[in-house]
Amino acid sequence: MANPNIAAASQIFGRTELQQLSTTPTAIATTTTDRVIKINALIATNITTVDVSVTADIFRSSVATKLVNQILIPPNSSIVIVAKENPFYLQEGDALRLSASAASSASAVCSFEEFVT
After folding, report:
1. Contact at 8 Å (CB) between 47 and 76?
2. CB-neighbour burial class of residue 39 (10 A; exposed 0-12, middle 13-18, buried 19+)
3. Which domains does the chain have, with CATH numbers?
4. What is the pLDDT of residues 50-71, one digit of tens each?
5. Cβ partners under 8 Å of residue 7, min gap 6
6. Fewer beta carbons within 10 angstroms: which end of the chain, N or C?
7. Which letter does DSSP use for residue 95 in this model?
8. What does the pLDDT average to over 70-80?
9. What single-letter DSSP state applies at residue 23?
10. Is 28 helix (H, G, I), strand (E, B) or coil?
11. Do residues 111 and 16 touch, judged by C-beta distance below 8 A?
């Protein structure tokens, strides 16, 4: 896994990804060769009338490092997991993954910048 120099980026793309969460961790943002992603915002929303827990992790080199673990979201509510005050970077090969305690019970929005070097 290389660590591309974002100061030498040839292109920067602003992106927003949407995801319906399942019980299996699924990537909402994934980096590829010669790319770095800056995560600016990650919001999870409970779209049901009962409590739902959400887990978010960074998956790197077959290891999942938790950002939040089974954080409880009340019915019909949202939680900000990442905000512009605390962005972070995904390096080549990293994935930002999400899962929920029940399938189709939560959705997520992720806003990020993708740097191409």
Report:
1. yes
2. buried
3. 6-116 (2.60.120)
4. 999 999 999 999 999 999 999 9
5. none
6. N
7. E
8. 98
9. S
10. strand
11. yes
